[in-house]
Amino acid sequence: MNSDAFIDIAFNSANVVAFTTTIHHPEGIAKSGDFGAFNLGLHVGDDANIVNHNRATLLSKLPAQSQIQWLNQVHGIELAQISTPSTNPITADGQLTSTKGAALAIMTADCLPVLLAAKSGDEIAALHCGWRPLAAGLIEKTIEQMKTSASDIQAWLGPCISKQHFEVGQDVLDAFKQQDLNYSSFFQPKSKAGKYLADLQGIARYKLQQLGVKDVTQLARCTYTEEDTFYSYRRQPNTGRMASVICLK
């Protein structure tokens, strides 16, 4: 296996397996073109046979008898409760399970993947946190619906577009300020009127800590600048998708 293909994520419980992918294929397959070598998104225009092979390769990294639940992500706050994973994608931007062998996958190419796990190792969640789900309350909804108390949850924030490159408009800042004026500290004004640089990881960390989740780690890497490692929609709109996956074994 190509060690550059996966970035392992450490959670407190030995029952939790988690990792995020890169553009590199674990079998060392090189592929030129817009979709790199290890695209996992079926919705971006890539060859479906190649993507399905990539998904099968991804599954082989998980514990035996696992099944991946994929989502049709729409930048909303729908949270799917997974008892038995389906081979069909579910329209949602978050998913939650206590089922062993259920692997929750989030696809990204600049948005922030957030993985949550009970420190007891019996409950996990995976969230697709672009600015819209963040502002609309996807994290809050998930913490509320988890059986685990916030103080017993560990959170991981994955690679996303960094603050230095994520330009947004006044509407985005206003969407957060309406909830809490402290969000202003995660927006750096640009010289251009009404434009700001937004810190997705900072916003998510603040939200989690305000909700009582104190154990938060992050992979502070930028999908936009690290073109040899990650897909980035803002860098190249016609591109593939990484997956951040968490599973109970």
TrEMBL record:
Catalytic activity: S-methyl-5'-thioadenosine + phosphate = 5-(methylsulfanyl)-alpha-D-ribose 1-phosphate + adenine; adenosine + H2O + H(+) = inosine + NH4(+); inosine + phosphate = alpha-D-ribose 1-phosphate + hypoxanthine; adenosine + phosphate = alpha-D-ribose 1-phosphate + adenine
Family matches, as Pfam families: Cu-oxidase_4 (PF02578)
Keyword hit for Zinc: yes
Keywords per UniProt: Hydrolase, Metal-binding, Transferase, Zinc
UniProt GO molecular function: copper ion binding; hydrolase activity; S-methyl-5-thioadenosine phosphorylase activity
Family from the record: Belongs to the purine nucleoside phosphorylase YfiH/LACC1 family.
Protein name, per record: Purine nucleoside phosphorylase
